[in-house]
Amino acid sequence: MTKISPIVAAMFMCAASLAHGAAPATCKGTLFLTLDTGNMRHAEAIAEILGKHQIKATFFVAQERTLRGDQALDPAWGDYWRARVAEGHAFGSHTWHHGSFRQDGPDGRVAYRLMDGRIVRLDAAEVCTELKAPDARFEALTGRPLDPLWRAPGGRTTPLTLQAARACGYHHVHWSTAGFLGDELPSQTYPNSMLLERALKQVRDGDILMAHLGIWSRKDPFAPMLDPLIAGLKSRGFCFARLPTP
User: Fold this and answer.
1) Which residue has the higher pLDDT, 10 or 89?
2) Strand (E) positions, 127-237?
3) For residue 198, is it within any domain?
4) Which residue in 7, 53, 96, 210 has the fewest CB atoms around it within 10 Å?
């Protein structure tokens, strides 16, 4: 969860201005809200919050199991994703299987732990396929391809996966230290009030924020806190933008 460097943050700021127009004079800084699929429990509620505050976010999509018993990129979710496209958000790959890249091997393959615990070994071409599969499905559902961005589940990458992803056109995006909103942490230890207060105090200009559209393990969901969080950050003078594409 390493914070992005000032140079990288400056690149994001510059690219965002070029892509979306200069920030309003009232903005004291720009933040990038990113949302990973998760179990989609709060997908609609989060979309309403984004609309209420009139901000754009970047969604990282994977074929994850949802609370409804289907998967996040199944045709049944087509209306949801088409609505988000119409609203002007950005979208990146979160891999197809939402596995964990573990370790590069001497054979040029990376160990990839699937959600069911199985470990498979992927070469560079197979890593690329893992990133392109959500892209193809998303375009089939919405008519729009993903942006050339990706995020590894858990933020865990290896040299091979980064190299393979770049070779097939995807640039990895992590999150800032203060931008880790903590919605996957146990609510007994990290209650919403604590996470909200921490984010409001620590987030700085150029930070990339990360949350999910639903988390299986957290008993008291953090998603409703996005409303006061966005309101509080805007009151500090921050504006929100989509992640710029390279």
Assistant:
1) 89
2) 149-150, 171-172, 208-212
3) yes
4) 7
